[in-house]
């Protein structure tokens, strides 16, 4: 995406284009079942109503439509025909767009870290860096999923959206450096989550075209599926009178003209409403509908349907920290392709490129890089002069030092630190208040430090040596990185001397936030909302920990997986 931005270098690793040059824009897809919500009737009836056409909602809708009538409600627009999404050349612009209809809705957590949530059909798969990798076998076992159906569901997704990336010199050096310092063995190109270093999959094809969860809708039954765009769900509708527990039976949504519509599920014990609005949207909609902590809902003037104090709890975001490493020689422009999966709970990745901060360009190649730098346009600025000067060593070309190279990042497993989500108001368009409590748990901080130490070893490895300046010490690189705008957290004088302080002060998101409707707290193992009939949540809000090194593969898999399970129940 998940996430995008008030907007510092948190977009750093997803804003760098692949080295394919000007990618051909993906042909617009015209689904016969997709239309603007203004064209929908005032009242309609379906077997399943899915709220949220994102990374989970699209495969879920496609699967359920094979044997039932399905309505998929998406608050954003279509990704097709939008070159900022489908074409890598416009990658940065989508993430930097803060207009009311942007595909990336920006927010800043209460921790002071800029972030974003998707607002487009296909969800976060339309905005992210494209890295594709499965969850570990242990993760699948802990979730209680059927391994055979999980594998089948992954393969179904991968036939449409997963590709092997083209790995060039900088990424190869990162790969070899990781293996050299002990993050082994080398596992080659591999979609599985296994210890060691590997090349992961990508949702970008060899032409640089993005393939998103929306592409999975091509497997649907067009006669049974309706997809409504710009359909903003205001709240869920419940039957309460004469029932021992609430029954979800409809949704209230508005179109782009502000007109209200109602959609209901048909009579029948197997028909359901399914929330797939993501780790922010799903708990937010539950609360707006009266399902959540009683005192909080009453403070907002929301009638309480079910006092569920766990809604909005367990919010986590995998913290990311990085080092910028300027290169004395040209490097390819690459997104994340290589990952080192350590045994101490940290993942090491990297992204490379030139002209990171929008330095002047005079030819076509540099123009491409200028227009696709890793920073959104509102943050296309150099690291501070103090940060560059703090390198404290002689150099011949300051511009090259500051703008050519790569970022090597670490992000931690889990995480153990948890926060919460609360409503700011009753407007479903507004972001709620979110706090992730980065590094609240000491073990998260220790893992960050261990990851940074591994990055330092990679930078000093023989395999990576040609991409480093010998006169730049690790402390110099830390100082230079601190100079980039990353978050709203105040810096400390000891940032480059204490890795613990560096972790706290330079924390960024990589948009893998999750929680808010967790299994065992809000939903059961079948993703049914506990205490409510005919209502499920199927998306990343149900996760206790983030799966694998990137969750999007597993979120798409879960949509397919639960679609099959629900149809089998039917």
UniProtKB/TrEMBL annotation:
Residues 1-25 form the signal peptide. FAD binds at residues 74-75, 120, 233, 511-512, 540, 551-552. Its cofactor is FAD. GO terms for molecular function: flavin adenine dinucleotide binding; oxidoreductase activity, acting on CH-OH group of donors. Pfam families: GMC_oxred_C, GMC_oxred_N. The keyword Kinase does not apply. InterPro entries: FAD/NAD-bd_sf (IPR036188), GMC_Oxidoreductase-Related (IPR051871), GMC_OxRdtase (IPR012132), GMC_OxRdtase_N (IPR000172), GMC_OxRtase_C (IPR007867). Disulfide bonds join 448-503. Residues 118-141, 278-292 form the Glucose-methanol-choline oxidoreductase N-terminal domain. Keywords: Disulfide bond, FAD, Flavoprotein, Signal. Gene3D superfamilies: 3.30.410.40, FAD/NAD(P)-binding domain (3.50.50.60). The keyword Repressor does not apply. Belongs to the GMC oxidoreductase family. This is Glucose-methanol-choline (GMC) oxidoreductase family protein. It comes from Rhynchospora pubera.
């Amino acid at each position: 995406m998940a996430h995008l931005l008030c907007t510092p270098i948190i977009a750093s690793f997803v804003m760098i284009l692949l080295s394919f040059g000007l990618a051909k824009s993906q042909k617009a897809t015209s689904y016969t079942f997709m239309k603007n919500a203004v064209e929908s009737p005032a009242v309609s009836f379906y077997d399943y109503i899915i709220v949220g056409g994102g990374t989970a909602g699209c495969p879920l809708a496609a699967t359920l439509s094979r044997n039932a009538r399905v309505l998929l409600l998406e608050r954003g627009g279509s990704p097709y025909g939008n070159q900022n999404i489908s074409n890598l050349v416009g990658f940065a612009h989508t993430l930097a767009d803060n207009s009311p209809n942007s595909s990336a809705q920006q927010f800043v957590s209460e921790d002071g870290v800029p972030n974003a949530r998707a607002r487009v059909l296909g969800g976060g798969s339309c905005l992210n860096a494209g890295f594709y990798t499965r969850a570990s076998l242990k993760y699948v076992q802990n979730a209680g999923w059927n391994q055979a159906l999980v594998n089948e569901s992954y393969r179904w997704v991968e036939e449409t959206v997963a590709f092997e990336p083209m790995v060039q010199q900088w990424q190869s050096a990162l790969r070899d450096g990781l293996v050299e310092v002990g993050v082994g063995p080398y596992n080659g190109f591999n979609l599985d989550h296994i210890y060691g270093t590997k090349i992961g999959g990508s949702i970008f094809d060899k032409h640089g075209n993005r393939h998103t969860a929306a592409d999975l809708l091509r497997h649907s039954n067009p006669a049974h599926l309706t997809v409504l765009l710009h359909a903003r769900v205001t709240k869920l509708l419940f039957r309460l009178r004469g029932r021992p527990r609430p029954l979800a039976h409809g949704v209230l949504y508005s179109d782009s003209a502000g007109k209200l519509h109602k959609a209901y599920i048909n009579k029948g014990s197997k028909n359901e409403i399914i929330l797939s609005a993501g780790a922010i949207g799903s708990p937010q909609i539950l609360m707006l509908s009266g399902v959540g902590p009683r005192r909080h809902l009453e403070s907002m003037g929301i009638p309480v349907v079910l006092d569920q104090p766990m809604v909005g709890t367990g919010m986590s975001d995998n913290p990311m920290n990085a080092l910028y490493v300027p290169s004395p020689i040209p490097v390819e422009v690459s997104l994340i392709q290589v990952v080192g999966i350590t045994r101490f709970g940290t993942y090491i990745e990297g992204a490379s490129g030139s002209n990171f901060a929008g330095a002047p360009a005079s030819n076509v190649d540099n123009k491409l890089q200028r227009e696709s730098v890793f920073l959104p346009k509102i943050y296309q600025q150099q690291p501070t002069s103090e940060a560059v000067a703090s390198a404290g060593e002689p150099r011949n070309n300051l511009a090259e030092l500051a703008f050519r190279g790569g970022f090597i990042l670490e992000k931690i497993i889990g995480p153990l630190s948890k926060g919460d989500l609360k409503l700011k108001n009753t407007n479903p368009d507004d972001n709620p208040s979110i706090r992730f409590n980065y590094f609240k748990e000491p073990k998260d901080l220790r893992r960050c430090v261990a990851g940074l130490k591994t990055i330092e070893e990679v930078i000093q490895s023989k395999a990576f040596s040609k991409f480093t300046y010998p006169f730049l010490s690790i402390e110099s690189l830390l100082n230079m990185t601190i100079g980039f705008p990353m978050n709203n957290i105040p810096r400390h004088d000891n940032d480059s001397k204490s890795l613990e302080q560096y972790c706290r002060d330079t924390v960024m998101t990589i948009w893998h936030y999750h929680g808010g409707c967790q299994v065992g707290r809000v939903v059961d193992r079948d993703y049914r909302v506990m205490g409510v009939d005919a209502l499920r949540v199927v998306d990343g809000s149900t996760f206790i920990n983030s799966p694998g090194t990137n969750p999007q593969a597993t979120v798409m898999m879960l949509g397919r997986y639960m679609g099959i399970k629900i149809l089998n129940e039917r």
